Amino acid sequence: MSVQFPDGFLWGGSVAANQCEGAYQEDGKGWSTQDVAPQGIKGPVTEVPTEDNLKLTGIDFYHRYKEDIRLFAEMGFKVFRTSIAWSRIFPNGDETEPNEQGLQFYDDLFDELHKYGIEPLVTLSHYETPLHLSKQYDGWVNRKLVGFYERYARTVFTRYKDKVKYWLTFNEINSILEEPFMSGGIYTPKKELSKQDLYQAIHHEFVASALAVKMGHEINPEAKIGCMVLSMPTYPLTPNPDDVIAVMEAEHKNYFFADVHARGIYPGYMKRFFRENGIEIHMEPGDADILKHTVDFISFSYYVSLCETADSSKRAELEGNLFSGVANPYLKASEWGWQIDPQGLRYVMNMFHDRYQKPLFVVENGLGAVDKLVTGEDGLPTVEDDYRIQYLNDHLVQVGEAIEDGIEVMGYTSWGCIDLVSASTAQMSKRYGFIFVDRHDDGSGTLERYRKKSFHWYKDVIATNGQSLQRSN
């Protein structure tokens, strides 16, 4: 039986401005937190941008977006997820007037997408707080960021109200727990950051996100505004009830973020956590009412699942996307140690649906791998990436299974639909795309674009609305 996807399903791909645009100081752009993180999410931070940071050039999407969008259109994209670089619009973040050149760039980008019938799906804050807000205010620890974000969101909602229907407020908002600088612009070193300040910063992000939902709907009642969380389903290592409780507590850490976005209140399990850890969230008058402006849909990234155990002697650590957990003995792993679990995608979609009864949108999923450029039958360079095709096929089959389970799924945007600079490692060699970009870890390369084998495969998947996907026997 073939996989059934609904009519109007939004097929596409996903990128982030800081990983592809480059042009880090062109047309009035200010510095962002990404510009001083040359080794990626887990690396050291520099005082000023350094030449070894591949993100300063990215894949030069800023100048080549028309060429790239033509390729996306050739694949048949219905939607393209990207982000707005906050520091292109407000270079320092605390100005009262926006940078017109930055606004015009995104006008042109969205116009180009619409020329091909591609809907933009836009993330307001994707791991790049203006550096001035990080250094001067300690990022989201400071309540003032709510006002700065509100001004930024109002500016872009108003400017693009006729061009952008789908919005996300923060990328992988729960990642602030592990990477407070990259995710929350918090300049205080992680080891010195108190739980009180961390969770106060999270509260400020919740308020800002809810304000964005409120004003976005006021500016354009047709807009659909979602949250975006890093999903990482966790399984008990054994049936031991202690392991099951360890899983529950681990998953609470992530569900907390979607719970507040989807339900508009703080859950009881977090109130207990706050009591037991001496945390008192300061709420200003009106915050509780603001939080009730809940999101229209839940979007999420999915790359890996984890196991959890209460037995510390069995904690062989596995590095995932930001979060670490216990390795699953039944799963194989990618070249970067990320365990591959297609069924985990169906599982987490069912968990989200059962919990929130809101539409879901898979906005990141993909395989990072070292790709080898070869000469194709047409004489042009290509990549024979059957491993990526298999990975994506198996995950999309599970999206189809979730739809069969009765879940409303808006769409699917594979991560890094064109090769870009990795967020976690700042490498080019960790490639996700359907399109190979000739740039390398040492910064060399022509930046030429080449279609991989997966390019043609995904084109067929979209053209058949998923009918070409292969179920395993």
From TrEMBL:
Keyword Hydrolase recorded: yes
Keywords: Glycosidase, Hydrolase
Family as reported in the entry's similarity comment: Belongs to the glycosyl hydrolase 1 family.
Family matches, as InterPro entries: GH (IPR017853), GH_1_N_CS (IPR033132), Glyco_hydro_1 (IPR001360), Glyco_hydro_1_AS (IPR018120)
Listed Pfam families: Glyco_hydro_1 (PF00232)
Record PROSITE patterns: GLYCOSYL_HYDROL_F1_1, GLYCOSYL_HYDROL_F1_2
Name the record gives this protein: 6-phospho-beta-glucosidase
Keyword Hydrolase included in the entry's annotation: yes
Protein species of origin: Paenibacillus helianthi
Active site: E364
